[in-house]
Amino acid sequence: MNRKLHLTLLLGLTLFLSACASNKKPEGPVVESTPGTGDVANPATDTNPFGLQGLGYTISQLEDLGIVGNPLNYKTLYFEYNSSAIDKKSEVIARAHAIQIGQTGVAQVNLEGHADERGTRDYNLALGERRALAVANLMASSGASGAQIRNISYGEERPVDTSHNEAAWQKNRRVEIAY
Prior knowledge:
The protein is of the alpha+beta class. The protein has helices spanning about 1-20, 60-65, 90-105, 120-140, 165-170; strands spanning about 75-80, 110-115, 150-155, 175-179. Helix 1 packs parallel to helix 4 (about 120-140) and helix 3 (about 90-105) crosses helix 4 (about 120-140). The chain is globular, with a radius of gyration of 17 Å. The N and C termini lie far apart (about 35 Å).
């Protein structure tokens, strides 16, 4: 009973903190491009390099974050140990998917939360849920409808890498975007 109370309080605190998080825009001048330019982009000035209205990043800014090519090609967001905080690279990828979902009217997107093998099964299921929920909240505030988003937590049950080391654990702490 005490464990359930702690998990409930932890989940409530996580939701509260994610609701209070700021949505900072990238620093520096943002130049809007002409709609309809598609994949033909000017890397120096185009903030709509892949037809994603409202993403607000140039190709070089995306590359500085480690995103090479179209952000929609990335469908896995990674997390730090014992955390559901979204880093900048994952935030940009999630926002790109949200914009795409909003623009194309994709009916359903599944956000599959995962954890590494450390921790109990129940804890890891809750952590996977918090990670998926953090991404869902970001996507809902960036153009996707909350009705289009479904959260699923697999906890530690579906590892990408079954090794027992930090490199494997890093790969397993993730949310996969599936639509």
